[in-house]
């Protein structure tokens, strides 16, 4: 099959201009707070217009025979010009992670619904909030944001609830970690890969974490004393180093730590012919590779590369 792509600036297609000049297209989609990225490397004859920083691009990848799949929206962040050879490299990100969302700020939040907290921060940065259904009824009794960026603050909260907070395109996401679900709670369809689909791989199969029980400390505002809550049963026990402001926050952190311990630390890197369906957080089912590596995995990072040599995808997976 013949690989193809499209690049749009709003409603205007840039594909006819870019296609004959394309040296390479690199697109990276990552789970977590890291921003997705798009890099276009073009032959530059000196007459090619230099895109302005902040310009919005949309990208789709696929094959002429099967059609294109949208891969998201990106904002031009940097343009590099070089010689020899004459080249222009356009770097764009899925979200602006260099602006006010990274600026330190202080604010106290008291008895606030998580959806309202995410909504307030999203509105502050011109984004639309998307919170997973699991968290829509969650009320945070109290939490302080002290000289901490909104991005770091949300990531800290997400870690307490075994979730992911991430700006993506025009949205600010707060979703379950490693569940293969959309923000609405819809399960993403698993992609099935067989050993013959895979060009190369590298897997690591370490043992799971050993602890069975987690203890988290918190400040009891009624008694003024430090108390603790325990999640899980058996030994060994892990005691979290932080002291949390409320019992609810301590319990959430302990639950998140237990879930992390239960997850396998196995990882798998795969390279295969380009497949635009492979995106971060999508489940993958592998068969016919080898014992120990076959089974269900979740994509943590997907990298798509297109050039005159063809179209390849490289994915990083976890259990």
From TrEMBL:
Record Pfam families: Phage_GPD (PF05954)
Top-rank taxon: Bacteria
Protein name in the entry: Phage late control D family protein
Organism listed in the record: Zooshikella ganghwensis
